[in-house]
Amino acid sequence: MAALDSSTELNSLLEEWTREHNNNAFNVVSSLHRMAEILERETEEYYKMDPDPFDDRHPAHTMPVCALGHLMRTLSKNDDFMNTLTSNYLMSSNRDLTELHVAASRLLLDVMPALETAIVFQDTDGLERRLLHWAESCDDPLRSYATGLLARAMELQEIADKFKESNSTLVPLMLNRLHNLKREYEKENEENTSQDYDRRHFRIFAAESEMSPEKRVASEGSRNDGAQKYLESSNSSPMQDTKWDKSDVQEQRKQSPRATLSHYQQSHGSKEGGHTRSDSVRDNYISELNHSNSAWSKPKMRGEYGNVSDGLATFKSKTKGECSNSASSWAEMKVNVIGTYSLQPLSLAMKQRMILQYLTPMAEYQEQISAAFEHNALDLVFFYMDLEKNKDVRLAFEALKYTANLLCHKKFAIEFLTMHGVQRALQVPRPSVAACGVALCFYYLSYFEDAMERVCQLPEDTLSVLISYSLWLMECSHDSSRCHAAMFFGQSFPYRVILNLFDQKDGLRTLFNVISTLQILDIDDEREVNDELISMMRQLIRHVAHALKKYFEAHLSHKVDEIKRSHTHSDDDGSPVHETPAYKALTLTPVIVQENIEIMMELMPARVNWAPEVTFHKLGGIKLLCQLIALAPGWNGFTGKAETIKNALDVLNVLVATPKSQMALLESVPLYDNHSTPAISVLIGLADGEIPDPEVQKSALNVIINCVCGPIERLGGFSRYVGAGSKKRMNLKVGEDTLSKMWNGVRVNNGIMVLLNLLTIKTPITDADCIRALACKALLGLSRSETVRQIVSKLPLFNNGQIQILMKEPVLQDKQQEHVKFCKYANELLERVVGKKSNANLDASLEAIRRADIVAQSRITFQEKELLQLIHGHLQSKGLTEAAAALQREANLPRCATPPNVLPAQPCVFASPHLASPTCRISRQVNHPSASYSTIPSDIPSTSIHSQAVSRKDSPTNSGPAPSTPGPIRFHLGRQLSQASPSLPQAKAAKSKFSSEKDCGLPSPAWRTKGHLKGQGDYDMTLDKIVTEYLRKQHALCRNPVTTCPPMSLFNPHRCPEVRGKRMAPINATSRIYKRMLGPKVGGIGGASVDRKFIYRRFKPCHTYRNPDEGGMQCCSFSRDEQYLMYGTFWGDIKLISLQSGEETASYNFNQMSIEDFQQARDSDLLLVSCAENGSGVWTYGDTVVSKHSFEDSHIEFSNQVQDRIIGTKDETANIYDVLTGKKILKLFDANRANNYMLNRATFNPTDELILNDGVLWDVRSGKSIHKFDKFNPNISGVFHPMGLEIIINSEVWDIRSHHLLHTVPALDQCQLRFNNRGDVIYAIYKRNEEEMEDLKGRSPYSHTFRTFDATDYTSITTIDVKSESISDLCTDKSDFYLAVVENLKTDLGTEENVCKLYEIGRLRDEDDRPEEDEDELDMDDVDDDDDDILTDFNNSNDEDGDEDDGNDSEEEDDDDDDNVAFSFSDMSEEDDGDDVDDDALYELL
To answer: Please, what is the Cα angle at 1022 between 1017 and 1027, to 5 degrees?
Structure first.
């Protein structure tokens, strides 16, 4: 009612001013004073609601129910009045208008909390100078009002910098004025005290349930009115380097949340089991406060105290016996607890408050600190902090704010401690507004390590009170005080004495309760919360998460020291562990913390309890932190989101050093809308970059690393924990069981895919190398799992040598150290996956390493007489005929000792593959020498035995190259070691992977690790070693090397025999057909596979169909009788085209949405139509179409054997329906196993017993999931192979029986697969995602092609470029004679057109139909075979027996695998199968 009266009165005054302000007879001063009185009265009521004193938002936002905010909004929205107030009334130059200036200043000061300070002072020129003049030379009350307005102005750094000279003069003046006012204020308080000596308010406020010694600590020093001067005037000279810049601490202080916090309160009862509230008479003292604050009270905490109102009730209940006869009332106590506000009459307290408000922003600047020392500012603040001498709690609060800003300077902080500042601050009563200022002082004080060391050396009783006071602030005070107290603890936990006292007082529970009771973390609380309260709660979570991080890191350091000391005692040779003094701060860098975690995981027994972790588990801390990191990514607009998540992850990073915390990450985290997800899945998502912040990614990876890289045997060094017998075996098994579950948890939640993607990350460039190293380390830990190791060994990252390419150089050259770590982990990962040491062979893939291992185990032998013949020829070429004749005689060499010049049928060039053509597979070496290990300099001599050039005139030591003619034998006498690759930690010579000498340190046996040469003429080399190494290099070039080799010849190049027997089918098509008449049905073993490659690489376009209605085309299919071609349009039509005439015969409209797919029943007129946007349905078609059933699924299809069931897909859910009734039979979905493929399509297996949905295999009969296949792509969910034993998910081929990864076919990546009706050929078309459709440059080169693959071994057959933008769909007829392809063409006008092209399978284009640009792709030789006869014979033949040894044929067609790696239009050219080409020559050509 009072608020309504105030609003009515203010509106009437404004209306009166609007009418009469231009009238000279109008009393403006009286009207302004009346408005100010209304605002001051409502400000008093606003204070009773106990708002956060650091919340400087508009009162209407802070307390929407209060009248002050509405009154201020009424004034601020009246632009005419506000402009007149600032521009005319304040800026009037008439000196006789002092009363008007006073009234205007008073009103403006009252309404400033609702105004933008920058707008007020920037839009009014000269206002600052006028206020400076009034504050310096005018009398009160104008001087005090001007000082209060200047305090608002100086909070803006631009204004403070602009008037720094004036402030340098005004600050000392204000301090002197403050001393004078203080003396007057003391006298006034003494007079009031003498009138009523017995009334003592704050003695009872400081009392607790019982008076303990710690409550009275340092009381004498703090109550001493005549405290000694903390700095003599002679030593109070200004500082040498005074600048108008803020210190680093001040910059950090600017980021503190005190200016953006709001006050969030909910009423709560007293402590459980505690005292009841006092009698109703005493409750009447605060009834008005409780009534106005009922909707804004704080949530119930698990602690001991309440807020101001509840704290009073608690205080009164605890001190009922002591104060039962007290005559105090709330009207008397509110002055001491909340404070008052009145500018007329202007009291001494208000004058001092305005001066302190001005001095507070000035205290931040370095050059103003000297004035504080010279004018004894510390005496002033100590006086104001003592509320037994100072009766105005708001004045004490302003003094504490001023003190906090002074504490930004290290010198002042040290002096504050010397003068017992902490003890004096602890005497500030609570609950009170001044206690909020104490929280800010403690927070600023904790920034300086020297100051905190002094604090930690205070008496134990004082420290105990300090911790209790801070815990009370964190639990029961305003939100700003909670933040400041949490930040204080975050800075103080590295000091052991603070940490121990914190634990003694159950501080972890109090700290945890700050966030556990917040509404935004309570998923069951459906109440609406405004954005400002949400922002406040997020700030609280941010600072509490940082404090928890420091808490557990400090405890971890102490625990590791304890473990080290235990091991030092048991090890006599160990160095002693030096303990950090309790008053010294621990060093808690990320590197040290990670080292401590590894030590703890290695040495601490698994069954030993760690007290902080046990307490945190009891509080539910792990679950809450996991819930926090799951919800925080959705906090859009919150600037501290990344920091909050990172701190929470760092807490988990420490806790997962124990198995119990690791297992907690496998539990589900509840989310909104009754959803849940495993905590480990949330971590993997953050590591994958859900939050685009590299620090968050690295923290998430560290947590995963600690979960998967821990020791298998967690026994530690405490002998008393090592049991015997079964207990010992049980302890050994703890670590293994935990690791197995963590490995499985990471794998099931698609961790392998995420980690593999992070190995190739390139952005952000400054952190890419570090992220790569961490991801590789996590993979290294996962690879200890046999299942993971089997999967990883089949991936192209290791099969195709991609990881070796990544190891060659870092993303950023400045990050060499991180790249060294990556190379270290990658080498260990290769070693673990391969099973043998990789010896830093950076260019070798797994297949190359396998072949190299065979070569290394081969025993090389050769005919020694051939070597002697070579020596004989060499001696003759050098003119040593006598020696040659003696050798010929003694060795019984033939007369013609010089061997003939025999050239190989195929060139055998032993050179680096980097210099050879990439298509010359026969010359590709296994060792792939890189520049770092096997580069052959041009100045190393290369001698040929069969040189026919003139002998050199140079000396034998000449290093120049000897002229030679090409011959079959080339070998090098030495190799020079180049600089080691930067990828390795140390520049050491690496042992050759293919060397027969086990102790050889270099790729060539001509050099040793101990040095290039032992001495002049002393070589550690023999001719036998040289020849053996040369022959081993030849053996390494074989495509299929064997361990047992026959003696090799020095005259002819070595080549291991190829696996091809007489029963193998000929490659030549004519020969195969001829052989069918004499022997096997398909011409021999592997004949069916060769026939498939012959037929399904030939496609002849015969017809092109267009939609005359411009409705486009989306999908296609052949009719049941194969007389018509059907296609679906974007407009919901399905049209039939006659294959004979090419004319449209029928058109059916099903809906107005685009038809994504349709399927006909084999033996009925049912038609399944799938529409992604409008659901799907079952229709019957004939003369008309009739809808039978409709479903919400985006895709539906029939079962395979008996089409009595329909399976539908909607997002990650699969639904099975009955065809006749349309009722849902079964629903298949498991949120914990969902892979969330974007293009998920559920499908039956060929026997209809299994279902593949979202990458998860289900049993149809039981409705339970069988296995979740690892996810390696975000889009394709997979299909069953028609043979029923394999599942193809994108490029991965899985075994249904063992769930092992069998193959990876990179060419199938992001492809939609269609099988021919025989099930032995795969058609693949590339499916573009939305990003590629928008980005033309990022389109795949396969987007306008379709490819064919042999479904038996997944080798590539051919790639057909259709010369279009993309392909939407394709299908084949039942006889596999025709292929229909829906293509998206681009017209000359730039528009897209959808057409359906019909291709004949197995036939080449006619010469007249082939475009000119394709003429170069024609075969050089004509094929005499009749293609139609071959196709007919192939389709009519039964190759079950002929393909029994097809596995041997895969090596013959190994060259076709190149299609799986890189795109090349040369793949599209037809190869010659003519009978005039030799089989061996054709093989080499392939």
So the answer is: 135
1083: left (phi over 0), alpha (psi -120 to 50) or beta: left
**1059 DSSP 8-state letter:** S
C-alpha dihedral sign at 61, 65, 68, 72 = positive
pLDDT digit string, tens, across residues 57-71:
888 888 888 888 888
Q: Could you give the count of Cα atoms lying within 13 Å of 857 in the half-sphere of its Cβ?
A: 10
Whether residue 1430 contacts residue 1069, with contact meaning beta carbons closer than 8 Å, is answered with yes
Residues contacting residue 512 through CB under 8 Å, at least 6 positions apart: 544, 548, 616, 619, 621, 624
CA dihedral 617, 620, 626, 629 (to 10 degrees): -120
End-to-end CA distance of the chain, in Å?
A: 97
- Predicted TM-score (pTM) above 0.90: no
Q: Are 856 and 993 in contact (CB under 8 A)?
A: yes
Give the HSE-up count for residue 1168: Cα atoms under 13 Å, Cβ half-sphere: 25
Please list the residues that pair with 1372 across neighbouring strands.
Answer: 1379
The pairing of strands 1301-1304 and 1311-1315 is unpaired
Give 1208's strand partners.
1196, 1215
pLDDT of residue 716: 45
Q: Tell me how crowded residue 341 is: count the other CB atoms within 10 A of its CB.
A: 17
Phi-psi region of 1283 (alpha: psi -120 to 50; beta: other; left: phi over 0): alpha
Peptide bond into 899 cis (omega under 30): no
Tens-digit pLDDT profile for residues 414-467: 999 999 999 999 999 888 899 999 999 999 999 999 999 999 999 999 999 999
Task: Report how far apart, in Å, the C-alpha atoms of 713 and of each of 656, 717, 731, 732, 964 are.
Answer: 16, 12, 8, 5, 63
**pLDDT at res. 895:** 67
- What tokens appear for 80 in the block? 């005419």
Q: By the 8 A CB rule, do 1289 and 1276 touch?
A: yes
Q: How many Å apart are CA 1149 and CA 169, to the nearest integer?
A: 88
Alpha helices in 1046-1137 (DSSP H): 1069-1076, 1087-1095
Q: CA angle at residue 531 from 525 to 536, to 5 degrees?
A: 85
Q: Which two tokens stand for residue 653?
A: 């990073």
Q: Which residues of the chain have pLDDT under 70?
A: 1-3, 95-96, 193-336, 569-577, 714-736, 836-847, 895-1021, 1058-1060, 1329-1339, 1390, 1406-1486
How much is the pLDDT for 965? 33
| Distance between CA atoms of residues 1406 and 1401, nearest Å | 14
Determine which helix (DSSP H) or strand (DSSP E) holds 1361, and give its type and residue range. strand 1356-1361
Helix, strand or coil, per DSSP, at residue 617: helix
What is the spatial distance between Cα 87 and Cα 93, in angstroms, rounded to a whole number? 11
Whole-number pLDDT of residue 1443: 42
Other beta carbons less than 10 A from residue 460's beta carbon: 11
Which of 683, 695, 691, 690 lies closest to 655, judged by CA? 683
